[in-house]
Amino acid sequence: MNEYDYYLPKNLIAQTPSSERSASRLLIYSKDERKIEHRAFYEIEEIFQKGDCVVVNDSKVISARLWGQKTKTGKAVEFLWLEEIKSGIWCGLLRGKNKLGGEFDFGARQIKGRLLSKNEDGTTTLEVTPPVSALSFLSEHGVMPLPPYIAREKDKKNLKDQDRYQTVYAKFLGSVAAPTAGLHFDAPLIEKLKGKGVEFISVTLHVGLGTFQPLKADCLEKGELHSENFEILEENARKINQALQEKRRLIVIGTTTARVLESAATEDGSALRAGKGVTKLFIRPPYRFKMIKNLLTNFHLPKSSLFMLVAALIGREKVLEIYQKAIEEKYRFYSYGDAMLILNNKF
């Protein structure tokens, strides 16, 4: 894992989004020319070409973070909801030291949670009374699950985060973290690109626990990540397959989208299979991509599976070199940061 480490000054970790979605910066790396270019994100309109097929992840982020109090002491607690196992039983991450059987009040005491178990993967199981619908309750009382490296007040319903930590094309509720590469697109830019003849096609992968947990030795040994659910609609698979047959450029938005396509691709990469699935795919060197050649992504944490995916696409030494250049140029890193576009003009 140390081979995928780098030093990042803390002041380059973006704490807030850019003033406008498409006003962020864009580093372009042309793989075949081995050239780096610095642009504004909205200039992507000049880079994308008529006939390009842009594939996005349309998963929508749940307001999955809940703040509450310990019933006995009134001490604040934080719970990151991950899954409703069944009515009245929730799985998630409960911060701090808590005893089995401990009780907590959430949503201005509208529900009570009792700690049933502490699980091997670091999650906890709560019994919730009364057994309300998790998604309905979270939509009213939860806040956006911003990553822990955004070190500012997150215990209030920040309306800006409710909007900006969600892609403009988000459709299907199910993620507990945003597919952040897509945060740079705004509606006017998408319309301009469509008017130019660029085709936008959606797949869905619901981002889960793996985003919040640091990589462990057993992940490296098994070569698997925490499982995540995905779906590719028949019509969208047909459109992507048509683009492949016509040798049009496929531009993939984000590592989550890349994992969907690589998980559902045929072995030779000539076609994409439609349907629902579950993936544990861990893309890292020396992985050989079946379908992905062009990728838009953010700048990722060191030693993370996302950083390793980018290294698999362009090489470990090259991605470390590019990141060092981005640091020198003072790009903003991580979820609310700037973007990087990897282009390979050879089909």
What's the structural blueprint in terms of helices and strands?
Blueprint: E1 25-30, E2 35-40, H1 44-47, E3 53-57, E4 59-61, E5 65-70, E6 76-86, E7 89-94, E8 103-106, E9 111-118, E10 124-129, H2 134-141, H3 159-164, E11 172-175, H4 187-195, E12 199-205, H5 217-222, E13 224-232, H6 234-245, E14 250-253, H7 255-264, E15 275-281, E16 294-298, H8 305-314, H9 316-328, E17 339-343
Helix pairs in contact: 8-9
Index terms:
alpha/beta, Thrombin, subunit H, 9-stranded mixed beta sheet, QueA-like, single chain, 347 residues, 29% strand, 17 strands, 2 domains
Q: Could you give the order of the helices and strands?
A: EEHEEEEEEEEHHEHEHEHEHEEHHE
Runs in which pLDDT lies below 50 for 5 or more consecutive residues are: none
Beta-strand portion reads 25-35%
Q: Let me know the CATH homologous superfamily of the largest domain.
A: QueA-like
What can you tell me about this protein's structure?
There is one protein chain. By secondary structure, this protein is an alpha/beta fold. It has helices at residues 44-47, 134-141, 159-164, 187-195, 217-222, 234-245, 255-264, 305-314, 316-328, and strands at 25-30, 35-40, 53-57, 59-61, 65-70, 76-86, 89-94, 103-106, 111-118, 124-129, 172-175, 199-205, 224-232, 250-253, 275-281, 294-298, 339-343. α8 (305-314) packs across α9 (316-328). Strands 2-1-17-16-14-3-12-13-15 form a nine-stranded mixed beta sheet. Strands 5-6-7-10-9-8 form a six-stranded antiparallel beta barrel. The model has no long low-confidence stretch (mean pLDDT 93). The longest helix is centred in the C-terminal third of the chain and has 13 residues, at 316-328. It folds into two domains: 2-61 and 162-343, QueA-like; 65-141, Beta Barrel (Thrombin, subunit H), CATH 2.40.10.240.
